[in-house]
Amino acid sequence: MGYLAVSALILILGAVVYRRYYPVKGVQCVKNCKGIQDKLLCVDIRNYNERTEGENLNVMNIPYAYLKRFYSEIPDQHIHIIAQDKVELRLGIRFLRQKGYTVTSYYLATCPCKREVELVGCGA
C-alpha cells in the first residue's frame, strides 16, 4: 500500500513540475505586437498592476488568474501572449491550447527577446 501511495505522489508531482517548468514547443519569442495586430490577437496575461502606462492599449488584458473565467471572451484567432515570467507563460500557453486556441508567439516582460516583428511562417 505504501508503494502505491508513493508512486501516486511522484506522478502528481511530476505532472505539476512538467506543466510549470517544461518548455512549450512551437512558440517563438517576438519583441512586441505593434505590427502584427492585423494577423494576431495580443493577449496580456500579466496582472493588472504589472502593466505600464506607455504600453499599447489595443491589447486584450486577461490576467492568468482570471483566464479560466474569461477565456471565452477571446476571439478565435491566432494569439500573441505577453507574460511576466516563464512559469506564467507556460501555464497560459498550455491552458489556451487545451481550450483550442493557437498560440504562435510570446513576449516576456522580464526578458526582452532580440527579434523584432518578424513572424515568418507563424500560420496567420
How would you sum up this structure in a few lines?
With 124 residues, this protein is of the alpha/beta class. It has 3 helices and 5 strands; from the N terminus they run αβββαβαβ. It starts with a helix and ends in a 16-residue tail after the last strand.
What does this protein structure show overall?
This protein is of the alpha/beta class and 124 residues long. The protein is built from 3 helices and 5 strands. Strands 1-5-4-2-3 form a 5-stranded parallel sheet, covered by helices on one side. α3 links the parallel β4 and β5. It is elongated and about 60 Å long. The termini are far apart. The C terminus is likely disordered.
The strand line-up of the biggest sheet is 1-5-4-2-3
Strand content: 15-25%
Most strands sheet: 5 strands, parallel
- The computed structural class is alpha/beta
- Residue-averaged pLDDT, rounded? 83
Roughly how many Å is the radius of gyration? 16 Å
- Percent in helix: 25-40%
SSE sequence, one letter per element: HEEEHEHE
Strand count: 5
Q: What's the total helix number?
A: 3
Uncertain stretches of 5 or more adjacent residues: 117-124
Q: What is the terminal-to-terminal distance?
A: 52 Å
Task: Report the principal-axis shape.
Answer: elongated
